[in-house]
Amino acid sequence: MLLGCASVHVLVVGSGAREHALLLALRRDPEVEALSVAPGNAGTAAVADQYEVDVTSGEAVTALARRIGADLVVIGPEVPLVLGVADAVRAAGIACFGPSKDASRIEGSKAFAKDVMTAAGVRTAVSEIVDNPAHLDAALDRFGPPAGQAAWVVKDDGLAAGKGVVVTTDRDAARAHAASLLDAGHPVLLESFLDGPEVSLFCVVDGETVVPLLPAQDFKRVGDGDTGPNTGGMGAYTPLPWLPADVTRRIVDEIVKPVAAELVRRGSAFSGLLYAGLAITSNGPAVVEFNCRFGDPETQAVLALLESPLGQLLRAAAIGELAGQPPLQWRDGAAVTVVVAAENYPGRPRVGDVIHGAADGDTVLHAGTARRDDGALVSAGGRVLSVVGTGADLVAAREAAYATLAAIRLPGSHFRHDIGQAAAEGRIAL
Ligand code: GLY
Q1: Closest atom of ligand 1 relative to the 295 alpha carbon
Q2: Which atom of ligand 1 is nearest to the CA of 162?
Q3: In this predicted model, what pLDDT tens digit does every residue of 298-312 receive, in sequence order?
Q4: Whole-angstrom Cα distance, residue 257 to residue 118?
Q5: Which intervals hold domain ATP-grasp (predicted)?
Q6: pLDDT tens digits for 182-203?
Q7: What is the rounded distance in angstroms from the CA atom of residue 277 to the CA atom of residue 218?
């Protein structure tokens, strides 16, 4: 569908595999004539013109968008959004896909998100903010796990790239994490544990208009079998064969739409990607968290199946015309993404190792990668690559992803072997 701007120049802001996936999907849109990325990585350089920019500066991003003649700016990560970069771009008269600073508090402040959810009547974990170390022990006692079946959930109230959360049945570990956050001056959010399989549902939102993408599941723990510390995400798959379509509809109708409406009511209308992280409990879906941007690594799997033109969808949301968009079209089958992480991730990762076998194309997406002066591809971050496999079903998509991964060599690197495995074997039931 034409949107009155048949040759769009899109600037994507960010440097992860999520942004690489966005660029690849945008490139498939016939109305996208030019692609730029800032700052990008060694892989995105093959897809888009690449520019250095301070992504946290609204002034710098706006100046770059003006200089290169971008018609649409798509902001990937949460930090620039929470800092108001989208507001600056829009104020300069350039269409921007990404929520305002005000609306981004849905991710930037867990206390704000809880307040919105309570007002919208949305099911979520019971929670309490602790900002005084003297109150910590009593609060931990109130949130103690009953009869060994649940856990303490201790979160940083601000942004923490997925690594600020500790879920544990060990009170000492819960206390130590909370105390370290308080020592660093960060308020702590204690939550009740939501039991049940997790779902990430991304919705393109423009005010009260909500367009869901395919539901996905990501894998937050570093090790096989959900062991080890939390990470930014080690892999994902979509769609979810165990999730009935009516549950996805309930998530949209009972959770995302009421939250979008509540944000409009507060004068903080959301325009961009609203990411609902949910647990499907025995009492139905409940919110674990909201994020104000595409998730990483779920985006790498979800966009691999999108047939509709992504540039037109994002631009429609950015200019307030989402309600007029045709229904989204998806490829049949499944997609799986597996993250290749550097040695020691999610701790301080080892960087600068040469990567072999990461062929260019749509199946090996780059995150923490760079080109050395001699042209060699080297690791430059914790999550280095996202390998994507697609196939007729989850079994075939897993085989494709792990076959591509087998050709990649990065000293000291690690990945999970079980992304999508339980679902492929029919071991997830509601
Ligand atoms: N997949 C987790 C995140 O994007 O925050």
Answers
A1: 4
A2: 5
A3: 999 999 999 999 999
A4: 14
A5: 114-319
A6: 998 888 988 888 889 999 999 9
A7: 10
